[in-house]
Design goal:
Order of helices and strands: EHEHEHEHEHEHEEHHEEEH
Helix content: 25-40%
Strand content: 25-35%
Radius of gyration: 22 Å
Number of helices: 9
Shape: elongated
Number of strands: 11
CATH topology of the largest domain: Rossmann fold
CATH superfamily of the largest domain: NAD(P)-binding Rossmann-like Domain
Low-confidence stretches: none
Largest sheet: 6 strands, parallel
Length: 215
């Protein structure tokens, strides 16, 4: 993976740096708080005390066009906007910016962010979905309509083959994999004669509304 530069070490930024470093990614951490930089030194490739909004200082650090830069300034829209503009002018291709809400997201996209994340909203959505559909274990949204998710099979699926369930014609979903717990293994694109057990986890793709109907 390309080098990652994280600017702003609040809870979000600090944990991203730590997770990336522990997984073997080269990551540079930047923050103007000396105490925070001291804490992240052992969990980063390089930790630098610097004001991320200072264009000249950032240029001296040597951020490259192919670096992935993650900007995490909490609710400071002015700071996030300024550094995003500077990175865009430096022709950085992949700029990920943390935003507190949709309004800030739109502004950051306008000035050049290639991706804007709203962690609180995304986590809230995930928790809400887990409560609405307790047997749906995880979601990966593909578009406004389609989703890939892991699903604990309903009791009506137990002991039946995938072919017998006619999932495509009756429920408009496809089983693209099955994660077996006993024994632990993954079956990609399972055959129609695969019998579903209560210990299996189905990995399915379909529209949100159709997934909700079979939960």
């Amino acid at each position: 993976m390309k080098r990652v530069v994280v600017v702003g070490l609040g809870i979000f930024g600090f944990n991203i740096v730590k997770d990336l470093y522990e997984n073997g990614i080269e990551v540079i951490a930047i923050d103007k708080d000396k105490e925070v930089i001291q804490k992240i030194r052992d969990y980063s490739t390089k930790a630098i005390v610097a004001d991320g909004t200072d264009k000249e200082i950032m240029e001296s650090i040597g951020i490259q066009e192919d670096d992935v830069v993650i900007v995490s300034f909490g609710e400071d829209l002015a700071a996030a906007t300024l550094i995003t503009l500077h990175l865009k002018e430096a022709k950085v291709k992949h700029i990920i910016v943390k935003a507190p809400n949709e309004d800030h997201k739109h502004v950051l996209e306008k000035v050049g962010a290639t991706e804007v994340v709203i962690p609180e909203k995304e986590m809230a959505d995930k928790i809400a979905k887990s409560l609405i559909s307790p047997n749906v274990l995880d979601y990966i949204p593909l578009s406004e309509d389609y989703t890939i998710c892991e699903l604990a099979p309903p009791s009506s699926f137990m002991g039946k083959t995938i072919g017998e369930l006619h999932l495509r014609s009756r429920h408009h979903i496809e089983v693209i994999a099955i994660r077996e717990v006993l024994p632990e293994r993954i079956r990609m694109v399972p055959r129609a004669d695969f019998v579903i057990k209560d210990s299996d986890i189905l990995v399915i793709i379909g529209k949100e509304e159709d997934i909700q109907k079979i939960r």
